[in-house]
Protein 1
Amino acid sequence: MIKTAVVILNYNGEKLLRQFLPSAIEHTHGAELIVADNGSTDQSISILEKEFPSVRIILLEKNFGFCGGYNRALAQVDADAYVLLNSDVEVTANWLLPMLRLLETDSTVAAIQPKILSYQDKTKFEYAGAAGGFIDALGYPFCRGRIFNHIETDDGQYNDQRDIFWASGACLMIRANIYKKFGGLDEDLFAHMEEIDLCWKIHRSSDKVCYCGSSTVYHLGAGTLGYKQPRKTYYNFRNGLTLIFKHLDTWELFLKLPVRFMLDWVAAFIFLAKGQPGNMIAVLRAHYRFLRHLNKNLRKRRLLRSEYPHYSRKTIRPGLVIVDYYFKQKKTFVQ
């Protein structure tokens, strides 16, 4: 059996701990359950000590963000496989075993995500991950079960097991040696899309990322940062540009980066037209920060490409999801 640690990163989440940690304790068998506290200032630690004494606590001195918090916490964990589990996820009976079996039976599988359904409506897929992540030709991420704001009902259509491009950070199982080989999560991303970056690195090696539809969890979503908040908009747009800058081949970058910039400006004006000036400003800030840190990301790009010059395009959709969704009215992954 693979030695496994389930690690929940917490920051001022006392309400979420009481709501979701009991399911993890009840249904996590054969794995160490850990809560890594990212410098909380609420009553999280006292609640953990008094109400959940079986859970191991890792204390971090301040909030290092999602990426930095996990990197520092996992450096203190002895395991063959990690499960990065959001603090707002309810797990189900037997959720771990199917993913562990997949790791044990296929040595080329580096990372896995389960089926992620909505905690608020358990018949539907959840926004952040759904039934496995993909990207299109411009690097825009989307999921089986959720394309933009169209969310499918779970009718068993994604009860399969298959290769995907990225696995959701809401519930991500990854081999410890793979996590360490790629230096963990890129802390400059701070939060959002860091799992896509890590999975893209995996595709540069001979390993693969998989979806396991026989394992199910329920994700509340936006438990720390709301989906429509300007801060989240900022991270998504800045990190989206950072990802394609780090990973696309040179010819792709020259062709696609200007298009991404143009489409981001279109999105900014749409935010303004919808009466969301905060989100419009967030897009402009994202572009400024991306350009300001261009040299730093150029060094990362060169280092990454020197060690892993190629990446598998097998799970990249060749078309543009924006065109299919808005102009061809294709709302589901199957379409």
Note: The domain at 4-219 is CATH 3.90.550.10 (Spore Coat Polysaccharide Biosynthesis Protein SpsA; Chain A).
Protein 2
Amino acid sequence: MSRAPEFIHLSDAAVRAVAGAHSRHAALIEDAFGVLLETPGGGVSMQGDTKARAQAKKAVQHIAERADQGLEIAEADVRVAIGQAKSGGAPGALPVGRRGQVAPKTATQARYLEALSKCELVFGLGPAGTGKTFLAVAHGAGLLLRGEVDRLIVSRPAVEAGERLGFLPGDLTEKVDPYMAPVWEALTDILGAEQLRRRREKGEIEVAPIAFLRGRTLSHAFIIVDEAQNATRLQMKMVLTRLGEGARMVVTGDPTQIDLSSPADSGLAHAVGLLDDVKGIGIIRFGAEDVVRHPLVERIVRAYDADAAKRGRSF
């Protein structure tokens, strides 16, 4: 241990966040970097060798920045900050494709990424613009690029066509692609058009309506079920039971945006209620504060939420 501890000046809120309840956050940082942390007031005192202090300081500063923004700091946020301080990347960043790194912009996004890395099945629930699908695609692309899975499969219900795509012109790919445009855009943004084309031709990336997954066992794959609020209960059960050996899945959707003719038949909220306490499943709920699109989108989401509350509706 170094004889001269380093003192980092922080706000009171940041000090509380770094320490955590019963000093749990501080203990995580100490264990991760082999340093000694103390919070004498006005900041954090850190003792350890030079390299360890430098890495721990990055994690502490990131936690402090989020605390000073008024964000609640959970254990998941601390673990993400630790991991990225060790790797030298932006906190919570995913090293993928041409984007270099895709980093979380909110505390909920950080918890979402941690759940994706730890759980075999994750539900991401919340309004448009919160990054649910994009981060899932980025995580899946990273797994594929690192060889941790053999395939990336993205599926969504083709509600507008009732999953009867035969009336559309062209071959299967041409019929399906219009309904998968948001997914293709995310994949192109992350991987680049050329790499996406090559991996799609090799069968490493597949995008298809939920109906096309029936009867299959999906092994050694990362599966993303997008717009899942428009999957029926039967479809949801079917797709959740496609998981095979070495497979992982994330299910994303907004329970307030159901396009089914009978909204009560939506399988998303039903599945979450059934599986809430099942081991190996993570459930992350996004709110209006997590919207990372145009600032107006957050205000629109809040207005609709307020209207729903006024009418006594809950989702």
Note: Residues 97-310 form a domain with the Rossmann fold fold (CATH 3.40.50.300).
Protein 3
Amino acid sequence: MCLAAIGKIIKIEGKDAIIDYGGITKNANISFVDVSIDDYVLVHAGFAIQKVLKEDFDRNNDLFRDGF
């Protein structure tokens, strides 16, 4: 089973972005989505696959913090 995670774009460099997952940052390819800095995205296997709302990011973080 694979897991996708929601994060906030904090920097864009061409088709790559630095994504903040609530304190942990990783690179992701943003070729498949039309996004800007401060947008929230769902990332799977190193690729942003969908733009999401901030509320989804907050709910996702709450679930992980509370252990589902």
Note: Residues 54-65 form the longest helix (12 residues).
Protein 4
Amino acid sequence: MMPSFTHTIEDEVGLHARPAAMFVRAAGGFTADITVARDDRTADAKSLLEVLQLEAGRGAVVTVTAEGPDADEALAALREVLTAG
């Protein structure tokens, strides 16, 4: 089973614009394959366009999953980005 975590978006603007860019930038620093899912949609966490298409506004629940040699480190970093807003 791939490591993952679930997070409720608390940022006022959701996972859009600047928060999404920060999330994608952080994901791009890892070699692991990272996905972020909301409802029935899944996005490559390293693609700003795909992340924005999730339309994850405030209160949305997303699940971030990673697979690869640095998956645990990637998830820890991305959880921090989401929590920091």
Note: The first helix runs from residue 17 to 28.
